Amino acid sequence: MNPIKAVVFDLYGTLYDVHSVVARCDALFPGRGQEISNVWRQKQLEYTWLRSLMGAYAPFEDITEHALRYTCNRLQLMLSDAELVELSDEYSRIEPFREVPGALAELQAMGLPLAILSNGSARSIRGVVSHSGLESRFAHLLSVEDADGVKVFKPHPAVYTVAEQKLNLPRTEILFVSSNAWDASGARHFGFPVCWVNRAGNTFEELGQKPDHIVSGLDELADWLRPCH
Amino acid sequence: MNPIKAVVFDLYGTLYDVHSVVARCDALFPGRGQEISNVWRQKQLEYTWLRSLMGAYAPFEDITEHALRYTCNRLQLMLSDAELVELSDEYSRIEPFREVPGALAELQAMGLPLAILSNGSARSIRGVVSHSGLESRFAHLLSVEDADGVKVFKPHPAVYTVAEQKLNLPRTEILFVSSNAWDASGARHFGFPVCWVNRAGNTFEELGQKPDHIVSGLDELADWLRPCH
Fold this sequence. Notes:
The structure is a homodimer.
Chain A: E1 6-9, H1 22-28, H2 33-54, H3 60-75, H4 81-88, H5 100-109, E2 114-118, H6 122-131, E3 140-143, H7 157-167, E4 174-178, H8 181-190, E5 194-197, E6 213-215, H9 221-225
Parallel strand pairs in A: 1-2, 1-4, 2-3, 4-5, 5-6
């Protein structure tokens, strides 16, 4: 592996816990928060892939609402349009995983430029990062919206290209970090060295790619990068 | 809706029951057949979408094997490479749904050209159809492989275009029939009139499309088409 000159993180599920929404779901539908969150997240991902393929792009925030609407229909939950919008807005207040603030500070102290590359809109990414008070950690907040005119989501190569262009580094010198095995596979296929964050003992996807490194939390990243930096 | 001049069917899950593989899975892992089949099918679909987006096409039959390998890893099932290939081959012996042979005969008797448009390879489609003795019902067996050089799966418009070109009819006169709500949505977005086959009381996807008609089995199709044919 080449020396790593910058680190690019996925946002949803990697730095920030998408299941932060469980408590709010539970408040509306007691005891069903985790089930709602699981179906909602699965459909959110599927709709990003399907709309990219269909050529029917919609912003991530709209897709988040559509996925929640599907979830309510399937689980037979009554939700007014106002509640649906309110619950979808919880995605802008999701929390970073416990070890993330410390790990980012440590990596930044090593002089590594850090960035986020996310399916979210530029506005959503800024909102989530600012809500958690972590703005000063990042040199770049990059959105699929920055892939000019392409209108697709990850794992389309046009999205990963955004990071390569904005960081102005060859892809082989940019470490891509994701908890989503499909995203890690897409980034690896694009040509980034990849670290898969496997907090929950998940199974890696069989998409013809293997991560270069696996950690169980971001706090393991600095120790791994230090020798080759 | 324009008069319908031909009917194009999805294969996997629409004409043929992908969960026909449950019995074979159960024989290998008693009591776990349905669980294995569910994860396997879900991953098979995800991998067709993800590989299309990544630009890393692989034939559907290879993806079926990859998805089974993932399933075994995740469910911690031991399967030799030979058993894995053997179990994947079950997909070439899946059975039509109970009402399908009669429904196809009835539609054919109305003078409607019938076709299949599937993610499978031309060889797989022929194999499945011939194993069930239904070859004489179809005017065309169409594969994603017929989308010259495009190397993507449904719901990419390039795949639906194959049916329009081979049937030599405007898309508005071709009824597309699928049990897969994401496929029905993709076909509707492409411009086909669409019938969704909802045998199991599923929830339609929220992808900005609605089917033109919904049936609970293919035996309801002829009665619906007769008045406008």
